[in-house]
């Protein structure tokens, strides 16, 4: 999937002037549409975790706070299980360059506690809001674009991993 993401990004950036070689909100929506279309074509559905990663990546580059909040709420509403929340935390954490200690602590917090699904969804929403807040205060377009790309790539990678694990468990039952 990373190759598909990189190819789509390269194609978009090749059409831009030299001083604007970064993704904007509409570009990210196009990349996410390509990811979703590829998922539909290859596996017949869009995994919820991939949808979450796409929502968050779009939120990072959304043009205003209202749109960012809408996309973050949409991503949080998809966080119906531990795997989904964990995949987003790991993906975004890796994109932000968090160390393994922080990632481990976040993963244990979200996945290692025995809580009900609604609590996980609420907590996941809070984590997404905190992470989105980090991006809201960075307005350097090229830097923000690079972080959004990394977050998308890692989030999709982790999301597909969770998806395939869940599918294999369901198939063995």
Structure description:
The protein has 173 residues and is mainly alpha-helical. Helix 3 packs antiparallel against helix 4 (65-77), helix 3 (48-61) packs parallel to helix 5 (82-96) and helix 5 (82-96) runs antiparallel to helix 6 (100-111). It has helices at 2-14, 25-43, 48-61, 65-77, 82-96, 100-111, 117-136, 141-172. It has one domain.
Number of self-contained structural domains: 1
Q: Strand-residue fraction?
A: under 5%
Give the averaged pLDDT, no decimals.
74
Please estimate the helix content.
Answer: over 70%
Strands, total number: 0
> From N to C, what is the helix and strand string?
HHHHHHHH
Tally of individual helices: 8
Radius of gyration: 16 Å
Shape: globular
Pairing-aware structural class of the strands and helices? Answer: mainly alpha
- Sheet with the most strands, sense and barrel status: none
**Cα end-to-end separation:** 28 Å
Instruction: Outline the low-pLDDT stretches.
Output: 106-126
Summarize the structure.
With 173 residues, this protein is mainly α. It has 8 helices and no strands.
Which features characterize this protein?
173 residues, mainly alpha, 8 helices, 80% helix
Helix/strand layout:
Layout: H1 2-14, H2 25-43, H3 48-61, H4 65-77, H5 82-96, H6 100-111, H7 117-136, H8 141-172
């Amino acid at each position: 999937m990373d190759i598909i993401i990189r190819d789509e990004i390269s194609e978009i950036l090749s059409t831009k002037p030299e001083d604007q070689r970064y993704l904007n909100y509409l570009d990210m929506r196009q990349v996410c549409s390509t990811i979703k279309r590829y998922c539909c074509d290859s596996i017949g559905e869009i995994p919820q975790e991939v949808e979450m990663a796409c929502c968050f990546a779009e939120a990072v580059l959304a043009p205003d706070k209202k749109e960012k909040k809408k996309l973050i709420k949409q991503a949080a509403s998809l966080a119906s299980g531990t795997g989904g929340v964990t995949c987003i935390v790991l993906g975004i954490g890796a994109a932000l360059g968090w160390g393994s200690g922080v990632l481990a602590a976040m993963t244990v917090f979200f996945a290692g506690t025995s809580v009900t699904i609604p609590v996980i969804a609420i907590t996941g929403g809070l984590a997404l809001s905190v992470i989105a807040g980090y991006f809201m205060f960075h307005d350097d377009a090229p830097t923000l674009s690079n972080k959004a790309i990394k977050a998308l790539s890692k989030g999709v990678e982790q999301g597909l991993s969770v998806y395939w694990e869940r599918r294999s468990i369901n198939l063995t039952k």
